[in-house]
Amino acid sequence: MDKRLDKRHKRQVARAKLHAKTSKPDVRTHEQIEAAREASRPDAGRGALAKFARAVRSKLTGSKESPEKTDAAEKTES
Question: What is the pLDDT of residues 14-68, one digit of tens each?
Fold first, then answer.
């Protein structure tokens, strides 16, 4: 019984090796990888999430103006 199971296992392993795909190395430059990451990010210009993102960004940069004030100023200038 063990010999039969052993042979079966060997056949399964051999078949699996034939169908296995090896991954290819990423040959892009660092700049290309960064550009691809930036392009795949969601658009921050729309929706409620955009308002939150602008608020967080302004806090990180140390801006004292709130995003609502800048939006209101742009609307009045138009």
Answer: 999 998 888 888 899 999 999 999 888 876 556 666 777 777 877 777 655 555 5
DSSP H/E element including 48: helix 47-61
Residues whose CB is less than 8 angstroms from the CB of residue 40 and which lie 6 or more positions away in sequence, other chains included: none
* DSSP code, position 44: T
8 A C-beta contact, residue 66 and residue 56: no
Q: Determine the Cα–Cα distance for residues 2 and 13; give it in Å rounded to an integer.
A: 16
Cα–Cα distance for residue pair 67/54, rounded to 1 Å? 6
**Phi, psi of 41, deg, nearest 5:** -70, 150
- Residue 56 identity: V
Q: What is the pTM of this model?
A: 0.30
